[in-house]
Description:
Alpha-Beta Plaits; alpha+beta; two-stranded antiparallel ribbon
Amino acid sequence: MTSLxxxxxxxxxxxxxxxxxxxxxxxxxxxxxxxxxxxxxxxNDRFETxxxxxxxxGDEFQASFAGLxxxxxxxxxxxxxxxxxxxxxxxxxxxxxxxxGAEVLEREPFFEDGPAWWAARDAIDDVEAxxxxxxxxxxxxxxxxxxxxxxxxxxxxxxxxVCRDQVVQxxxxxxxxLLRGVLEGRSQAELAASEGISASAVSQRVRRDGLTALAxxxxxxxxxx
Length: 225
């Protein structure tokens, strides 16, 4: 689904900047970067981007999307995939999402800039600061709209993200794996086989941990442009 499209700075889009939490404490960074490349390649196949997911520098990676809903869905999936403790080099990540104009300034080497990216940078800086506040340690995603740009109400989007981050971060590692499987459309029998548990145990976790509700949120976000 990957595409690469030029956009005038006045054309709004959702820019996403991600980074690895506690990057400096990662042991084998080379192996982690290889895994990050694999996850982002899978995300590019799964979600519709304007500019594809790619690692930029050090612990950072980014992508942009025509609609906010797809940006929110994709960033959530990337977080779940990279946090899978069944995989080597599992890590937590945070995302800053900005809404505004953007444009491709150079293609070789690729460089894109504009208000959407500046807003995304403000958002990721803000979510890092928020996560250090008492009671907000679960914050992993934040959203900002560039100045003088019509866009989604930031307060409404932030309210969604505060709640979603709290619920997802409160899940056990197994339940996060099951959530990713549910979002990918895998059956409960398939998930049970991959986890080595009964289908009944999967069903109980899906109901108890609110995974169906989180899947409904993901489905509703498909409609958000």
